[in-house]
Specification:
By secondary structure, the protein is mainly beta. The chain is about 5% helix and about 55% strand. It is elongated and about 90 Å long.
């Protein structure tokens, strides 16, 4: 039979609270000029997260003898449930932990007569935890989930290399997203093949500044240079079927952006 589930605000909720702990180190070796290494650890924990209890959770809690949960349920004269007040409360939590690494290097060159430079930068993020705790106290860690939206890849990396000579600047960037699971909560009984493959994308950037970066700059960017297809990880939403996780993977293919920038 039909039951009304009524979502409600609650003026008695308290602010969400969080604790953030970070630690980092920067290394610039004296024997390797132009080289720098940065390592950062972060741990963000949020408690008293504002969330809905959930209609079924309220009913289950009342059936288990929780009087406050029973107070959110309306019944007919015959005892049938007619309405459940699904009220927001401070009942959830979340935690995110990881390590960020950055390596930078820059050096002058004389390949084509001097006045040149080559720079490289690598940025790596290692996700250790990306968990949520729901109204029932169930904890789900979605670190390594790349199939459905809401997870975090175990490893993401970006490598950029740029060559500069006078007015010319040429750069190439490689972005990597590690393989992962379709849904971190799924087991073999839910889905036989839960693996989502890794993805790599390349971007090429060209820029020409006749006056050394002042005045006019002509540029051309080619994104997803090799037209890498996104991994298949289907989902469903209001717009219909979703073939992949659009928050992580490129769905547009190779594209060109050309233009001119004026510094007045």
């Amino acid at each position: 039979y039909a039951v009304i589930s009524q979502r409600e605000g609650n003026p008695a909720v308290d602010p969400e609270l969080s604790d953030t702990h970070t630690a980092g180190i920067i290394i610039r070796p004296s024997g390797w000029p132009g080289v720098s290494l940065t390592a950062d650890y972060y741990d963000i924990r949020i408690r008293d997260v504002i969330a809905l209890s959930g209609t079924q959770n309220i009913i289950n809690s009342c059936a288990a003898g929780n009087a406050s949960a029973c107070g959110l349920i309306e019944r007919s004269d015959s005892g049938l449930i007619t309405r459940v007040h699904n009220r927001i409360l401070n009942i959830a939590g979340a935690r995110s932990r990881g390590i960020d690494l950055e390596l930078g290097w820059r050096t002058p060159l004389a390949w084509f007569g001097g006045a040149e430079s080559l720079a490289a930068r690598a940025f790596v993020t290692r996700t250790l935890e990306s968990s949520t705790t729901d109204a029932t106290g169930t904890r789900n860690d979605r670190a390594g989930q790349t199939g459905l939206f809401g997870g975090a890849p175990r490893l993401q990396a970006t490598l950029s290399v740029a060559y500069e000579r006078g007015p010319l600047n040429v750069g190439i960037q490689q972005r990597y997203v590690s393989s992962g699971s379709y849904d971190a909560t799924f087991g073999a009984a839910d889905l036989a093949d839960r693996h989502v493959r890794a993805a790599t994308y390349t971007t090429l950037r060209l820029a020409f500044s006749p006056r050394g970066g002042r005045g006019t700059t002509w540029y051309l960017n080619i994104q997803n240079l090799f037209e890498a297809a996104p991994p298949r990880s289907g989902d469903w939403g209001f717009g219909g079927s979703i073939p992949t996780n659009e928050g992580l993977f490129d769905v547009l293919g190779r594209r060109f952006v050309a233009g001119v920038r004026l510094d007045l």
